[in-house]
Structures are given as C-alpha cells and as structure tokens.
C-alpha cells in the first residue's frame, strides 16, 4: 500500500511538473500558470505573488528592521554532503545534514528557519535572468536559499502552504569578475555532471556564507510567494541589496545546462518568472537613503506634541 502511495505521489509530481514551464510563447508559460494553479494569479488586491519589481524610492526605510542572523552558514561540516540535481527547471542544491547541530539556519523576526535547498534562476545575457528586479533592472543570476519555519512546522511540506511557513533569501549574481568566485567554484564546475534533466551528483559540504555578498544584512523585505507553481503565498522574502560577482567562465557553465534529455536537447535558460503586481504590500528596507522613513509611534507623538507645546512659550 505504501509503495502504491509513493508511486502515485511520484506520478502526480511528474504530471504537475510537466504542466508548467518558462516558455512565454507556449501554453504552459508563466502567463498561463494561473489556469492550472489558481494560487499563481495576482489579480486580487490581496494577492501576494512573487517576484516583484522593487522600486527603491517606494520602499519604506526602517532603521530598526531586524537583520537576518545566519547560523552555521560559516561552517563546513566534513560529515555532511550536498546533492546537486537538474530537475529540468533549475539546478537545485540540497544539504544532507549529518546531525541536527550542523543544519544551516536563519533567525529572522523571532523565528528560526532551516535551509532545505538553494537553486538558481538565470538569463541568456546580462540584461535578464533574475526574478526580482531593482528599479526595473534585472541581474543575470538570482540564487534562492529556501528555508522553512521550524518553530511552527514539522517539515517543509507542512510549512509551504501556510502563511509564515517559509523564508527565502535572494542573492543577485553578475558576471563581471576577472577571476572565478571561490564560493561558487565549489558548485558551478559540477554543472557538467548535471547537464541534463534527471542528472544528480554529490559534493562535500562547504561554507554557505561564501555564496553571499560581504554585506548580507542590507536587505529588502516583503511578504510574498513561491515563484514556481503552486505559488503558495507562504514566503517571507529577504532580498539582498548587494550583488556578488562571478566570472564569465562560471556564467558560461549555466548556459550549457539543458532542460531535458533526448534527441532534441533544449537549453535550460531564462528560467525566471516575470514580476508580479505589488498590490497592497509594503517593501521594507534597512538600506540607508532608500525610500520613505518609517517613524516610530513615539517619534510621531513628539512631532505632534512639541509644536503645540512651543506655541505656549
């Protein structure tokens, strides 16, 4: 019975995976996701779909916005491994933790989130690739570090459908460096082993903080969704305002990946969802000089009371 359920789940997952892609000219592209996956629609004023275009002047500057606390991102565990796989939509890197104390986590706004995987979105040239944009500008690669809320949920699948269940940390990459980025050199050369859909390989664990910018806590934060079907609106997004440089040679490895394996090998490229409507959401930031300043209620009270008080003197 368990075997039948497992086979059924695999068939369902395969069926759902084949019902969407990134081809804007086909019937399964992002514009049509909402027909098969209703949560992917962004038409309702209350919708919280991702990605979005972050308009810096419209963000709300909040000097007291909590910064993410990275736990075990700076540790390489000799007994833990990473599985790299090509699922036809992207390359996914999944940690296999040897023990609970080796798990990479982010603490944010009083909750603890465990890293379950990270994956990539990229474009065919330097003008596209990232899912989020900053003032309408794309970056060539966007990395998503996907975490689930371990305080309130038992596992990722339980958390992914619930508000506050997930946290995704986004890091932009650009291919301007003259030499290889040391952190991404741990992963990118392995892409030749996962060139086709269904390929997997295993590498030793390494320090994940080498994949982030040197200023990982200058962020934009907003409530949103997964950027692939089923587009569950369960994600607290943290978008790093700083970019990481990789080399042109490292970027070329992304462009050699294929989305299938057969007689006609299709390039796995431009695998990003277009930006969605912001609707009624607010994007907060702690990047100085950005947007409108969020003022505390106490400060607002002083701004109101002091002019009145001075009027009596």
Question: What does it look like?
Answer:
- Keywords: Glycoprotein, Lyase, Metal-binding, Signal, Zinc.
- It holds the Pfam family Carb_anhydrase.
- Its EC number is 4.2.1.1.
- The structure is a single chain.
- With 313 residues, the chain is an alpha+beta fold.
- It has one domain (33-285): Carbonic Anhydrase II, CATH 3.10.200.10.
- It has 5 helices and 15 strands.
- The chain has helices at residues 2-18, 33-36, 156-159, 248-255, 297-310, and strands spanning 53-54, 60-61, 69-71, 81-86, 91-96, 105-108, 111-122, 133-134, 141-149, 166-177, 200-204, 219-224, 235-247, 284-285, 292-293.
- The protein is globular.
- Residues 1-16 and 296-313 have low confidence and may be disordered.
Layout of strands and helices, then pairs:
Layout: H1 2-18, H2 33-36, E1 53-54, E2 60-61, E3 69-71, E4 81-86, E5 91-96, E6 105-108, E7 111-122, E8 133-134, E9 141-149, H3 156-159, E10 166-177, E11 200-204, E12 219-224, E13 235-247, H4 248-255, E14 284-285, E15 292-293, H5 297-310
Parallel strand pairs: 1-8, 2-14, 2-15, 10-13
Antiparallel strand pairs: 3-6, 4-5, 4-11, 5-7, 6-7, 7-9, 9-10, 12-13, 12-14
